[in-house]
Design goal:
It comes from Mycolicibacterium chlorophenolicum. This protein is α/β, with parallel strands linked by helices. The chain contains 12 helices and 7 strands. Bound molecules: S-adenosylmethionine.
Length: about 300
């Protein structure tokens, strides 16, 4: 179903199910030989949501690639391993540099507030829709997980006035912040993406940092890939067409937008990020849309 203003979801429907999808990939990536990541909460969270296809993937009775021979589905686990590690390292580097406030925009089933070794005094804010955050908190409490930092869940839609909600939860705009927008931008309308960065910029004290990733063609090619994968996964009963959840339209490239707002920006292509972790990104045509993705980090001067 296409997007609508003010649409809502839980972790088993619409945009929320994409959080379950990527958590399933983290669960698989965490149990590979020589893993890049260790997310012990991904599998129990995916099982708690209960989307049959993803539960089977984390239980090992199905794989993402079972109905795909292009290589793109198989690569999903590697892409998520590298992406997760990139954002993990971003937060750990920021903490090592003395940043004590972190905001995870669109946190989904991200468990960094529970699994990263945050320094004393760190405070991690997570923003996502209410049903997403409530479900995750309850599911993690059920398995006895406790946050490894001060943890504040801010239930608000990122198309609405989220800075007010963030402030109301104790966000301090006078100290530097580490922000992540992981797996988010294509799910926002293009103007909401610009507004998101406007808000982040306005809330960022000097020395703040930001990490995100995006597709330079605004997700058109990645949308085709997502549609093909969704069609294959529907054979296994997962009937959300992920490409329908993307907002189409021209977008300002985040690197340009942020540079214009006083951020020192650097980007790396996905093969470069892979290489930084000693991994090789494949060369097949089916992987081209995934290859073009850019990982961005920025520092507010
Ligand atoms: C692909 S998932 C990524 C989740 C998480 N960042 C990760 O990488 O595991 C997309 C997430 O964006 C959230 N999201 C998308 N649009 C949103 C909006 N307008 N307001 C709040 N959350 C949103 C969804 O609820 C979902 O959790």
């Amino acid at each position: 179903m296409a997007r609508a203003e003010g649409d809502r979801w839980d972790l088993a429907s619409s945009v929320g199910s994409t959080a379950t999808m990527v958590a399933a990939a983290r669960a698989v990536a965490s149990r590979e030989p020589d893993p890049l990541i260790d997310d012990p909460y991904a599998a129990p969270l995916v099982r708690a949501v209960g989307i049959d296809f993803f539960t089977k993937v984390v239980d090992g009775t199905l794989t993402f690639a079972d109905s795909d021979d292009s290589g793109a589905a198989r690569l999903m686990t590697d892409v998520m391993a590298v992406r997760t590690r990139f954002f993990d390292d971003f937060f750990l580097d920021a903490a090592a540099a003395g940043v004590r406030q972190a905001v995870i925009l669109a946190s989904g089933l991200d468990s960094r507030a529970y699994r990263l070794p945050w320094p004393d005094g760190a405070c991690v804010f997570e923003i996502d829709q209410p049903q997403v955050l409530e479900f995750k908190a309850a599911a993690l409490a059920d398995i006895g997980a406790t946050p490894s930092a001060q943890h504040r869940a801010v239930a608000v839609d990122l198309r609405d006035d989220w800075p007010a909600a963030l402030r109301a939860h104790g966000f301090d705009e006078t100290v530097p912040t580490a922000w992540s927008a992981e797996g988010l931008l294509v799910y926002l309308p293009p103007d909401a993406q610009d507004r998101l960065f406007d808000h982040v910029t306005a809330l960022s004290a000097p020395g703040s940092r930001l990490a995100t990733e995006y597709h330079p063609d605004a997700g058109a090619s990645i949308g085709e890939r997502a549609r093909a994968l969704s069609a294959q996964w529907s054979d296994h009963g997962f009937d959300v067409d992920v490409a329908d959840l993307f907002y189409p339209g021209e977008r300002t490239p985040p690197a340009d937008y942020l540079s214009g707002q006083g951020w020192q920006v650097s980007t790396r292509t996905r093969p470069e990020v892979f290489a930084g972790y000693g991994r090789t990104f494949g060369t097949g045509d089916a992987l081209a849309p995934l290859r073009d993705s850019l990982a961005l980090t920025a520092v507010k001067s």
